Amino acid sequence: MLAVDVESSGTEAHKHSILSVGALDMENPDRTFYEECRAWEGAKIEDEALAVNGFSREQATDQKKQSEGDLVHKFIAWALQAKDTTFSGQNPSFDRDFLRAAAERAGHTAWPFAHRTIDSHSLAWMHMIKRGQNPPVDPEKKHSALNLDAILIYCGIPEEPEPHNALTGAKSHAEVISRLLWDKKLLPGFEQYQIPWLS
């Protein structure tokens, strides 16, 4: 299973561009991937997205950075070395769709990854229910309030630092998934934080 996190210039894979990708092979956690790229020519760049990921417009369009196409080719080559290439993370269909759209723009027509993903949100929701807890619901929007920070805290880990970094995100996804599925710590960076339901 691959924990994957994409930082982008917006939320729509066919209008916006990847700006960075972080990933971690959960069967071999020392094997990580992190690359940045410039936005593809004509991609929309939203100020709200930049506020989340910390890139400036200058960084997002820096011609010295590799193209989105070069980044996605590197990612695919890295990912295919894993025994299990199933994508996982918080709303991993977002990351999958961005990577697939980037691969299509780059002319990589043989998309090698599955449609199915493992969502840490669903895992955390089920884990809470099985422990007799009520998952949080946003009172205004009337839907789940289990974002990554809420899941990290539930799993005994501090919130993700801001601005968001794709590799930090991928590591956070991997750690919470390991704790939720197997009651096991995964990465040395989180070793100091105990698993609440085991203590």
From TrEMBL:
Name the chain's protein.
Exonuclease domain-containing protein
Q: Does the keyword ATP-binding apply?
A: no
An example of a GO molecular function for this protein is:
3'-5' exonuclease activity
The answer, when asked if Protein transport is one of the entry's keywords, is no
SUPFAM superfamilies for this protein: Ribonuclease H-like
Question: What organism does the record attribute this protein to?
Answer: Candidatus Adlerbacteria bacterium RIFCSPLOWO2_01_FULL_51_16
One matching Pfam family: Rv2179c-like
Q: Which UniProt keywords apply?
A: Exonuclease, Hydrolase, Nuclease
Q: Which residue ranges does the record assign to the Exonuclease domain?
A: 1-186
Spell out the PANTHER family in the cross-references.
Answer: DNA POLYMERASE III SUBUNIT EPSILON, PROTEIN NEN2
Highest taxon of the source?
A: Bacteria
